[in-house]
Structure of DNA-binding response regulator:
Amino acid sequence: MNSEGALPTKVLVVDDERALAAVIASYLTRAGHQVSQAHTGPEALDQARAEDPDVIVLDLGLPGLDGIEVCRQIRTFSDCYILILTARGDEVDRLIGLSVGADDYLTKPFSNRELVARVQTVLRRPRRPPAAAPAVEDQRVFGDLRIDAAGHEVWIGDHPVALTRTEFDILDVLSAQPRLALSRRQLIDAVWDTAWVGDEHVVDVHVANLRKKLDDDPTEPRYITTIRGVGYRMGRG
């Protein structure tokens, strides 16, 4: 729920099952959000551009343009949170959805209260960094990797690296405490929220995507090391 006087957060619900979309929208509206709906891939893209939502609840099985491609295209113009909806057993689509920029996923069937809770949880994360001059301590360097924590920018050498918000946030948490091994749960608490519930292995997918973008081989890591039985830490293996 938004604080008194604050503008309502905007949520776009995208699902070709109109009855389900309407039910989801009603729950989110009751939770205090401004909700719109789209039922095809092209509609979702048009409304995302026109409305600039804070969160998109995106079903992957859409007519006109599938949800994965919709997610990919939205990431070219928006940093909104994307929560994808997948059918039970659609692990490949789920992984692809996360790899092209989705922040989280929910597996059908789900309770509408759980979905509302997930939306509320992601909204606790700031959408954009506050405008401020980067402090010296916010410039973190690990070999060729440079992280501007305040500016939300990452470079390998002189080349900028485009990360999703979730990928950057994971890198930010790890790089802020180098050499400290953090478990999946600790990363979830820091990046998502302590109230987040779901499959903790979502962290592994985002870390894998992050490593690909940093060209960081997990068998010979330069930046992010897996600590077996614990989690991840910043630094060479």
